[in-house]
Amino acid sequence: MSSPSESLIKARDLASNGNYVEAEKQYFSIIQGNNVDELPSNKFLQEQEFSILELGKIYQDNKQPDKLKQLITDSRSILGNFAKSKTAKIVKALIEDFDTIPDTIGLQISATKECIDWAVESKLSFLRQNLQLKLSDLLYKNGDYKDSLKIINELLREYKKLDDKSSLVEVQLLESKIYHALRNIPKSRASLTGARTSANSIYCPTILQAELDCQSGILNAEERDYKTAFSYFYESFEGYNSQDDSKAIDVLKYMLLTKIMLNLVDDINNILSHKNVVKFQSKDIDAMKSIAKAYSNRSLKEFETSLITYSKELKSDPIIKNHFNSLYDNLLEQNLLKIIESYNCVELSHISKTIGLNLQQVEGKLSQMILDKVFYGVLDQGNGWLIIYDEPRKDSTYEASLDLVKNLSNVVDLLYEKASALN
C-alpha cells in the first residue's frame, strides 16, 4: 500500500488527539475531492475510501448515529467511482458501524432500506442482496418476524437459482432463527438442516460454523436433549473464543444453562475453572452460578432472589429466560408436592404462607398440576382447601374385556369370510 497523503495524515493525527471536529472537516475535504489534483486517480480513490471508513468509525466511537446516517447518504455521490466490490465493502462497513451504538436499530433499518433502494437504482445486485440479508437480520432482532421472513423467502429463491452455497448457509441459518423465535421448532430444524447441508459442500468460516453449532444447541435444548445441546454449545464456544468474538460469553452461558437443567452443579465449577474460561468471569457468569446453587438446593426463595438480583443478566436473553421459566415451574412443582405430601386436606392459605407466594399464584399452579395429573385432588375454593386423593389404581379388567371383544370380532369376521367362500 502506498504511503498516505499529508491531508490524510493530518486528519488521522487530529482524530487520535481527540480533535474530532477538525478531523471531521479534514476527512470531508478529502471525500469531497478538494485535493484531487494532488494525487493520481487510484491513490485518490484509496484516500477517499479510507476517509469514509475512518470517519464512520469516529461517529461510531462517539455514538453519533445521525451523523453516520448522513455520511452514508453523502457518500453515495462518489461511490459510483469505485469498483462494485469496493462499493459493497464500504456501504456494508458503514451500516455495520451502527451495531455497537445502543438504541439505534430503527435508524439502522431506515439507513439500510435507503441503501437497498440506491443499490437497486444503481443495479448493484450483489450489494442489494447483502443489504437485504442484513435488513432481514435487523428486522428479526427488532421482532418484525413476518417482514424478515418475507425477505428471506425472496433471497432463498435467488441464491438457489445462483447455486450460491455460502450465501445460502447464512440465509437458511437466519431463517432457522426466525422460525425458532416464532416457536415453529420443526421448520426451524428443517432450515438448520438445509444450512448444514449447504455448509458441508463449501469452506465454512469459523464464526459461521460457530453460529451453526450454537443454533443446533439451542434447538436440542428446546427438545430437552441437554446433553447433546452442551456438545454443540462447547464446539460453538471454541469457535467464537478462537476468534475473540464477543458472542463467546453468551454461548458459555448456554453451556452452563444445560448443566443447570441437568442439575450437574459440579460440572459447572469444572467448566468455570478451565483456563480458556477464567477470563470470562463477570456478573453474567455470577448470575448463572447463583441460579445453579439455588436449583441444586431446591430453594425457590434463593431462585427468586437470584432472578431479582441478576434480573438484567438473566432476562435480557430470551433463550435463557425461556428455560429459566421452565426451571422455575419445575422447582415450584417440587416445592408444592413436598408441602402437600403429608396431607389429605390442607388449607390453601397454609401452602401460600409456607411457600412464600400469594394465594392466587398458588391456586393457579395447583389447578395446572391437577389438570396435568401431577397429583390427584380438587380445589375447594369455597372453604379455601386443597383435598388430595390417593392415586387411583388402574383396573385392567376393562382393557382385558375390550381385547376379548376385539379378538371375538376378528374370529366372527374370519368365519363369515369362510362361509361366504363355501357359498
TrEMBL record:
Keywords, alphabetical: Proteasome
Name of the protein in its database record: 26S proteasome regulatory subunit Rpn6p
Highest classification ranks of the organism: Eukaryota, Fungi, Dikarya, Ascomycota, Saccharomycotina
